[in-house]
Write a sequence for this structure.
């Protein structure tokens, strides 16, 4: 038989490699920014159109290339940065694979202008899908300008796979932040669709962080400095009280390269143990300097992962230096000029004895008397609709159709006075005393049903109830909002604002009313009914963090994500004690849901134990 193996032509090989190196416009931004830094530039300009889908251009004042180098730079495995395998162990540059330009040129239209200092004229190159279309001499300043147009023009599947402009732009900004944070000694400017998004002059590290994340960041930063034989640490961690729901301000750089390391992140979290609430994340901007020999960054072409020779030691050093810095900050508050004076005890009160506050209880108060009326007007965080208890058991056994319920059914029937109640709960003492549910460990609600017993996870069950409520309002667009007495202003970083902008319409559909939507803050004048004002910032932070973890790709899933996120924020927490009636309402509301058996994130909401199950256990 004839031989059948052939070497792939270069342009095909390049296109395949491109799949790994260039996932989205942001990958191009990263590669080009890094090349400019490797070329020794100290001013770098990034110009983006339509979130990079139309244009990504980077202009630097680095060392430029000769004509031959310019042509060679687009060949695969063409690099000026390493010569032999040994060089891999003493890397001082960002690039080394010689893959980026070849990959980008394989899947886009690229125009490069470049000139070295000593040359009078520069080189112009135009490349489309790996083929050189034009080469010329050109008048251009020292340095290199690369314009990447029509990304993925020859891979429609990839192009269609790109997310909305908001999402793609966010990825670009993330990459831009990472590179800009690693190099405060380089000036960066970024334009999107003609307007300047960032203008970062050469500065020190603290100033760079503040220039990117806003003036308010300054007071949050606690310096961390440590130098040992194996590792040098410098940078800042956030004061514990500024810990966020999102991980958007967590940055590790190793030898000026942004990396992700769950392991080192854990070291930092453990340094904050006891200082921040569960579910919130410390901010950090930390630069680690290690001997290049002791790391291996060759694991993945996009190079955010890294292998260290001695991870355990790094972990221990990192943890203790962060702890040390936090400790210094805590024991020496007087030295901290940024401290908020309002938090200190005013002088007048210093020597006075505090008296025990008295709590008066109105024994006859029944919070549920009014609740019914309110429950009718919309979904609620703290109240549940009342409805015949029989409904839910029948739903659960699946014997009766659930389509016949009406809103008025729910509100007219009192749980206690429900005649069907008696047939639902086993005849006996419980029903006579009205005790149909029991809360276990402030976590589970236990209720008896004909066949035995049912156990609800209160947090998950309530999430389901709220989620369906939100979804309904998001899709039928009739949410009720409550007007705030004073507008609420909340500040966000520019990345966070990008998330919020993309969800603005959906948020409005749940009942949020925004009076201002600026680049770094929003002003809220109305919130969904039953969302307490104090929870608003927590809800939005949670939302941002959820979007970050699961990028919504269509309108529908953005809506869904919003409903999920808000129900997570507002649901009754584990550990919260519930009054008898609240427990009963939770049970009823859950079984009035379309899908009572799972939480919005697909976790089991309740389990049942039948009398048979018990009998078996007692055998
Ligand atoms: P790598 O960065 O891994 O070497 P690239 O494909 O990104 O691979 O770049 C190939 C080569 O092109 C680089 O090694 C460098 O010599 C040259 N080059 C790329 N971008 C620039 C630039 N902005 N200024 C000067 N030289 C550049
Ligand atoms: Mg490169």
């Amino acid at each position: 038989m004839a031989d059948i193996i052939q070497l792939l032509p270069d342009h095909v090989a390049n296109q395949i490699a491109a799949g790994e190196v260039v996932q989205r416009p942001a990958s191009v931004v990263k590669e080009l920014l890094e090349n400019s830094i490797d070329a020794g530039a100290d001013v770098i300009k990034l110009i983006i159109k339509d979130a990079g889908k139309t244009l990504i251009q980077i202009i630097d004042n680095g060392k430029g290339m000769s004509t031959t180098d310019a042509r060679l730079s687009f060949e695969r495995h063409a690099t000026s940065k390493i010569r032999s395998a040994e060089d891999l162990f003493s890397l001082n540059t960002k690039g080394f694979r010689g893959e980026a330009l070849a990959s980008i040129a394989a899947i886009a239209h690229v125009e490069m202008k470049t000139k070295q200092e000593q040359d009078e004229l520069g080189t112009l190159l135009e490349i489309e899908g790996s083929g050189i279309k034009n080469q010329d001499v050109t008048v251009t300043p020292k340095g290199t300008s690369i314009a990447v147009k029509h990304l993925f023009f020859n891979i429609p599947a990839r192009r269609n796979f790109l997310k909305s402009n908001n999402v793609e732009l966010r990825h670009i900004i993330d990459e831009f932040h990472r590179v800009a944070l690693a190099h405060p000694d380089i000036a960066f400017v970024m334009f999107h669709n003609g307007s300047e998004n960032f203008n970062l002059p050469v500065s020190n590290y603290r100033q760079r962080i503040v220039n990117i994340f806003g003036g308010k960041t300054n007071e949050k930063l606690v310096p961390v400095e440590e130098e040992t034989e194996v590792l040098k640490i410098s940078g800042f961690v956030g004061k514990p009280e500024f810990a966020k729901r999102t991980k958007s301000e967590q940055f590790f750089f190793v030898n000026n390269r942004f990396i992700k390391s769950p392991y080192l992140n854990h070291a930092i979290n453990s340094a904050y143990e006891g200082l921040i609430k569960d579910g919130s994340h410390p901010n950090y901007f930390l630069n680690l300097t290690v001997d290049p020999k002791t790391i291996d960054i060759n694991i993945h072409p996009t190079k955010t992962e890294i292998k260290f020779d001695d991870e355990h030691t790094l972990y221990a050093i990192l943890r203790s230096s962060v702890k040390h810095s936090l400790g210094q900050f805590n024991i020496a508050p007087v030295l901290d000029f940024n401290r908020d004076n309002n938090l200190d005890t005013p002088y007048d009160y210093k020597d006075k004895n505090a008296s025990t506050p008295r709590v008066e209880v109105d024994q006859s108060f029944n919070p549920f008397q009014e609740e019914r009326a309110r429950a009718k007007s919309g979904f609620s965080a703290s109240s549940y609709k009342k409805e015949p208890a029989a409904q839910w058991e029948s739903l659960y056994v699946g014997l009766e159709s659930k389509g016949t319920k009406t809103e008025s059914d729910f509100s007219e029937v009192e749980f206690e006075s429900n005649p069907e109640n008696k047939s639902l709960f086993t005849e006996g003492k419980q029903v006579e005393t009205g005790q149909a549910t029991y809360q276990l460990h402030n976590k589970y609600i236990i209720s008896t049903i004909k066949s035995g017993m049912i156990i609800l996870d209160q947090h998950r069950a309530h999430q389901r109830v709220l989620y369906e409520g939100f979804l309904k309002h998001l899709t039928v667009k009739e949410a009720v909002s409550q007007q705030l007495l004073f507008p609420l202003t909340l500040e966000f970083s520019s990345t966070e604002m990008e998330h919020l902008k993309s969800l603005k319409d959906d948020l409005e559909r749940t009942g949020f009313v925004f009076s201002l939507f600026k680049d770094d803050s929003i002003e809220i004048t109305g919130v969904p009914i039953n969302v307490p004002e104090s929870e608003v910032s927590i809800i939005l932070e949670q939302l941002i963090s959820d979007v970050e973890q699961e990028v919504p790709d269509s309108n529908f899933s953005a809506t869904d994500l919003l409903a999920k996120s808000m129900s997570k924020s507002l649901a009754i927490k584990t550990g919260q004690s519930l009054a008898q009636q609240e427990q009963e309402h939770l049970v009823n509301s859950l079984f009035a849901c379309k899908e009572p058996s799972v939480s919005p994130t697909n976790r089991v909401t309740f389990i049942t134990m039948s009398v048979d199950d018990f009998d078996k256990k007692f055998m």
User: Anything to note?
Assistant: The pocket of magnesium ion (ligand 2) is lined by residues 31, 34-35, 95, 100 (CB under 6 Å). Residues 331-351, 371-434 have pLDDT under 50 and may be disordered. Residues 529 and 565 are 17 Å apart (CA to CA).
